[in-house]
């Protein structure tokens, strides 16, 4: 991590754009045209207010005309798919077979894993992502390399060893009696490291590739350590059929995770496209969250999640790139795809809705809503400085350009007040 020297600025001047977390409709943002953001020695935001000459005693880094905003949070991204972005090899199950599984098998080579882990963290930071929730491969060594890279980059990250013990290539299959001890080892080594920036997540790939005993053991490990559980659900109809063939005792897809104990109250399920009202209700009852991955859903032709399904039930919904089915690490691309996705369903979210979704909304979905997601006093100072074309001035125009125009540049990123990019 790039350490900040004692005389480095602790205050930052620029335009400020942030969600208002307590807003009743969840879509309000606040802009301060000339703001001072002061970071305390604990890495928390001590002040976010209009700049007043002479009011702050100490060095100020003047980042004007850049806009200071919360760092983006990618709630669903696959580290070992960094190099297969854009592999158009069919719908989900064909794409996994042809493009993903052969690439993920390469991560048994720790030198390769180290190389790609550096690329992965570099691309996240260059996109303005300061928190990521990550699937590794099924290889414990590669997962260790991923955590090392997250620590070295100074990123906030929740990551897990991808569990799969059936219906997958031999090179990726790890039986329960190896996978669970390996996961436990990684919990001990990495959970809470980086001063709490890093967390280990229990990560069954998806129901078709996990046996019931594996998922039950994983659920116990999650409960023992209070770990986030992340997996996929109802991305594609053929995947749904494979799930019920593999687990004929379940009444539907959500019931698989429910009955093995994985819906712990800290479960984060990606896609959630082809769910019945009963399944949505059950996700709400179990306190589960979902991740909307619209760019991936378009690329694989998986279908479209309607944002109102979780929202009507109070199920927190975050945004994920789902790289490598998603075509970019940039959460602005995901916001733009979320707009397209909603349009196809007859809805029309505002750029402010999408900005709040990618920041505070996603923080809430991954359980970090009190820690990051907005630039409010008391939160940890995870923020980015974004440069817009000169003519982009007002709040509405800034949000339009942020979400749709691809002409804004991430200039700097900070995690807990520490500079992490460039
Ligand atoms: Zn995924």
From TrEMBL:
Q: What class of enzyme is it?
A: hydrolase
One Pfam family recorded for the sequence: Amidohydro_1
Q: Which UniProt keywords apply?
A: Hydrolase, Metal-binding, Zinc
Against InterPro entries, the record matches this protein to:
Amidohydro-rel, Metal-dep_hydrolase_composite, Metal_Hydrolase, Metallo-dep_hydrolases
- Asked whether the UniProt record includes Metal-binding among its keywords, one would answer yes
Enumerate the cofactors the protein uses.
Answer: Zn(2+)
EC? 3.5.4.3
Q: Which residues form the Amidohydrolase-related domain?
A: 67-420
Q: Name one GO molecular function term.
A: guanine deaminase activity
Name of this protein: Guanine deaminase
């Amino acid at each position: 991590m790039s350490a900040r020297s004692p005389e480095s600025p602790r205050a930052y001047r620029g335009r400020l754009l942030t969600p208002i977390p307590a807003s009743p409709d969840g879509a309000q943002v606040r802009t301060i045209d000339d703001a001072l953001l002061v970071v305390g020695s604990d890495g928390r935001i001590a002040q976010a207010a209009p700049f007043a000459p002479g009011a702050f005693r100490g060095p100020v880094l003047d980042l004007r005309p850049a806009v200071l905003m919360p760092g983006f949070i990618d709630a669903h991204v696959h580290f070992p798919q960094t190099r297969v972005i854009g592999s158009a090899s069919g719908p989900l199950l064909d794409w996994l077979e042809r493009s993903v599984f052969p690439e993920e098998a390469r991560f048994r080579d720790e030198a390769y894993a180290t190389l790609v882990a550096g690329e992965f963290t570099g691309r996240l930071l260059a996109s303005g992502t300061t928190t990521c929730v990550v699937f590794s491969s099924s290889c414990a060594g590669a997962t260790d390399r991923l955590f090392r890279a997250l620590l070295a980059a100074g990123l906030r990250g929740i990551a897990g060893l991808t569990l799969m013990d059936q219906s997958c290539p031999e090179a990726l299959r790890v039986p329960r009696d190896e996978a669970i001890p390996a996961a436990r080892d990684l919990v001990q080594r990495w959970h809470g490291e980086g001063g709490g920036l890093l967390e280990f997540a229990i990560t069954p790939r998806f129901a078709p590739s996990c046996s019931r005993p594996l998922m039950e053991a994983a659920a116990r490990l999650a409960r023992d350590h209070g770990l986030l559980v992340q997996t996929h659900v109802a991305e594609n109809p053929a995947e749904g059929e494979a799930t019920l063939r593999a687990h004929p005792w379940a009444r539907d897809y959500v019931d698989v995770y429910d009955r093995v104990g994985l819906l712990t109250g800290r479960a984060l399920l990606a896609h959630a496209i082809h769910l019945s009202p009963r399944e949505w209700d059950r996700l709400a009852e179990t306190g589960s969250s979902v991740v909307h991955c619209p760019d991936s859903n378009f690329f694989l032709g998986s279908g479209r999640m309607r944002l109102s399904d979780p929202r009507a039930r109070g199920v927190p919904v975050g945004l994920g790139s789902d790289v490598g089915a998603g075509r970019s690490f940039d959460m602005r691309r995901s916001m733009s795809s979320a707009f397209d996705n909603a349009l196809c369903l007859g809805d029309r979210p505002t750029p402010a809705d999408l900005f709040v979704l990618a920041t505070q909304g996603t923080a809430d979905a991954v359980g970090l809503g009190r820690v990051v997601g907005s630039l409010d006093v008391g939160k940890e100072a995870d923020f980015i400085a974004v440069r817009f074309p000169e003519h982009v001035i007002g709040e509405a125009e800034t949000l339009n350009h942020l979400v749709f125009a691809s002409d804004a540049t991430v200039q700097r990123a900070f995690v807990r007040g520490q500079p992490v990019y460039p």
